[in-house]
Amino acid sequence: MPKALTPNEYFETVLPAMLRWKGPAAAAVGVNVRFVVTGRGGGTWTIRLRPPVAGVVEGSEWKADLTIKITATEMEKMLNGTFDARKALVEGNVELSGDLTVLKRVGFLFQAGGTATEVRSTQRPAVK
């Protein structure tokens, strides 16, 4: 069985590729979402879903409309299809702050195709 997708792989490889595939539609959402992933393998990433081009940056460079603080374990469950949002919220493994209506508009962020093995075998594009 292939190793599960990690938060770092998702934010550094999978999500940027997905945003490129979605092109202007991703930028048209008009919000920024920050993920603060706590624990081993965690970090902070901000997803810019605004014109001219959607993108992801490590850290908190952009002001966020919604911040999702989540444990690395719960993030891995989310990425691998075993996430129970209600349970995670009740147990304190996920905290939401900011405009909660943004959640409805950014659900597509977690509907990526491809397996973790396929993602790892894809080379990252050169930075220009």
What can you see in these coordinates?
The protein has 128 residues and is an alpha+beta fold. It has a single domain, classed as 2-Layer Sandwich (Nonspecific Lipid-transfer Protein, Chain A). 34% of the residues lie in helices and 23% in strands. It has helices spanning 7-22, 24-27, 72-79, 85-90, 102-105, 116-121, and strands spanning 31-38, 43-49, 55-58, 66-71, 94-98. Strands 3-2-1-4-5 form a five-stranded mixed beta sheet. β1 (31-38) and β2 (43-49) form a beta hairpin. It is globular, with a radius of gyration of 14 Å. It starts with 6 loop residues before the first helix and ends in a 7-residue tail after the last helix.
Instruction: Characterize the biggest β-sheet.
Output: 5 strands, mixed
Radius of gyration: 14 Å
Quote the beta fraction.
15-25%
CATH architecture annotation? 2-Layer Sandwich
Helix content: 25-40%
Summarize the structure.
Helix content is 34%, strand content 23%. With 128 residues, it is an alpha+beta fold.
Give the key terms.
Nonspecific Lipid-transfer Protein, Chain A; 34% helix; disordered C terminus; five-stranded mixed beta sheet; 128 residues; single chain; alpha+beta; 6 helices
